[in-house]
Amino acid sequence: MEAVQSQLHQPVFTVNFKPDSTGNLEFGIVDHSKHKGTLIQAEVNNQTNSDWTVDGITLTAGKAKLEQSMSFDTGGGDTMLADGKFVDAYWRQVAKSKKQGGNYVFPCSSKLPDMEVSIFSAGAVTIPGSRFKGAGVGSGACLGLLREGTSGYGRGSIGGPFFMSMFVVFDQATPAIRFAPQA
Predict the structure, then answer these.
(1) Structural domain containing residue 85
(2) Vertex 83, ends 72 and 25: CA angle to 5°?
(3) What would you measure as the largest C-alpha separation in the chain, in angstroms?
(4) Residue 6: strand, helix, or coil
(5) Which residue numbers delimit the Peptidase A1 domain (predicted)?
(6) Predicted confidence band at 77 (pLDDT cuts at 50, 70, 90)?
(7) What is the CATH number of the domain that holds 135?
């Protein structure tokens, strides 16, 4: 981004990934036709080349709740990483889910809980539970895309389930992250 920033209309890039492996990255513009509603803005407190950290994030899924700084890792990744107690509380809501080597597996036919992501009082968005369903691992079981862990920076990490649900703007000038549900 830094290499081409002087040639861009705005110092931004957007992420609009879809669950079917389509989508795009765009540089220099924000195409508002690609999202629904108002973009929620979160100020970034630490930014490196691929890690944008936001404080004051609350994750809620049924009885599971977590307040934590989270990294929005622009390097990708199909999972979401969070504190182990929150992850365990999330998967306890899914019948017959079980932990296997740091990951959870569950019957592929299960309905997974939606997750609300809120930033201070700026607003909240919902990640559909279906976005936490990974690939089949045999015998009718699927891999869960919410796992215990931290990014390389020691924080939870917002990953694939979020990016496959939201239109996300990374604003280098502010710096800030803005997001809303995809259109």
Answers:
(1) 12-18+37-181
(2) 15
(3) 53
(4) helix
(5) 1-180
(6) confident
(7) 2.40.70.10
